[in-house]
Amino acid sequence: MCTFAAIMWMIVIILVYFAILYGISRLAVHRADNDTFFRANRQSPWYLVAFGMIGASISGVTFISVPGMVTRVDMTYMQTCLGFILGYVVVAFVLLPLYYRLNLTTIYAYLGQRLGPRSYKTGASFFLLSKMTGAVARFYVVCMILQRFVFDAMGVPFAATVTVMVALIWLYTRRGGIKTLVWTDSFQTVCMLVALLLIIYKVMGQLGLTWSQTVSAIAADEHSRMFVFDDWLSRQNFWKQFLSGVFIVIVMTGLDQDMMQKNMTCKTLREAQKDMCSYGVAFVPVNLLFLSLGVLLVMLARQQGQAVAVGDELLPTYILQGDMAVLIPFSIGIVAASFSSADSALTSLTTSYCVDIRDRADDERMRRRTHLAICVLFVVLVLLFHLLNSTSVIDAIFIMCGYTYGPLLGLFAFGMFTKRHPDDRRAPYICVASPLLCYAIDMLSSRYLGYVFGYELLMLNGALTFMALLLCSRGTPSAGCRTAS
């Protein structure tokens, strides 16, 4: 598809892109200590955090998968996105006040103050496991796409691609950490949105549509269906999707150190709340653009008399058949989307390990070594996935990540909405048993009742953890715990 010269141009563009990221990191951070790396000295402008979080919330996998959703479930994903808005409001006015009042570096420290040390370590460990495996799986998918489009033609081995990419992330995050990401994420959000709009504009041109005609054509297409109210058993039922969207945000943003770390760098609680609500609302039109692109790609395939690629193959199939006008923005967009999520994941993993697991928040030497070690581990795991070369393994990783967030929901809900003191010794066992029980319920329900759980399994998981903690609890918490709650 691409000539040698075209591929060279793409490599140059990617290198220039990273050079800009590195330059931003140098300008943003002059003198850095652990407080800079972990909390950006609590001096981040809220509007900058809000804009950057749009890109941080959209991974490279999202860039590929969301357009392809229309071939399977039309535009019903918007029901979940509408639930996101309410979820962000809950995070802004329920969780953020708690985190700011306790002046937390990591959100899991709350569990230690309210529930006990084992609950604290358990919550942090679930985050480390889920975030590392999930981030690696997402990054692997993106590296495979770049390898397919660019580096295979150059004869560059996959191991070199992954190593160089992660090394570049380490290079611009190693000093300033989260303070650097507040600025680089804003740049990467611009790149992602511009790339998305350029691809949409290119498809519109091929369809011979103006902007107003495009809106009308999408609205009239059979794949434009957004709402499902009539089928309660469907996974696309509005209330299932909407409520799932609410809880997805509460758990995977409000109870996730990666997502919350940048939000807690704002100067005041008020600014953090404005940041959270702003990008929570912005998330809806951005996903609407991705879904609209999916509808346009289906229309284009039909117009050209081609078979419509299904799911995650929809956008890559179009890119492979296109020219440099779509390949370059696609490459920049997917790199921006994937790296804005990968760099924050690596930074939050470093923060949680140093602060939560090792209790060494002031040890700069350990923080530098940990950050490097996590980057190396990241590379090793990506290469391991490549060695296994199995899509089913990646799917299993994503499913596992979904299960591991449920116990966090149960732990935080118990701490915030009850006055009781749990049996801290049993908390690790409860948090392991709850996802296993959810898995068994899902299998039995599918086999004997014909009901397949979707995102609502997260709510069930959290409820089981909450009930088990409640059954093992006693009296009221100690004075110190009451203060934290």
From TrEMBL:
Record flagged with keyword Cell division: no
Membrane topology: Multi-pass membrane protein
Domain of life where this protein originates: Bacteria
GO biological process: sodium ion transport
Membrane-crossing segments per the record: 6-25, 46-70, 82-102, 123-147, 153-173, 238-255, 276-298, 318-339, 370-388, 394-415, 452-472
Gene3D superfamilies in alphabetical order: Sodium/glucose cotransporter (1.20.1730.10)
Main subcellular localisation: membrane
One term under GO cellular component: plasma membrane
InterPro entries xref list: Na/Glc_symporter_sf, Na/solute_symporter, Sodium:Solute_Symporter_SSF
Pfam families named among the record's database cross-references: SSF
Entry keyword set: Cell membrane, Ion transport, Membrane, Sodium, Sodium transport, Transmembrane, Transmembrane helix, Transport
Molecular functions (GO terms): symporter activity
Subcellular location: Cell membrane
Family: Belongs to the sodium:solute symporter (SSF) (TC 2.A.21) family.
The protein's name in its UniProt record: Na+/proline symporter
Lineage: Bacteria, Pseudomonadati, Bacteroidota, Bacteroidia, Bacteroidales
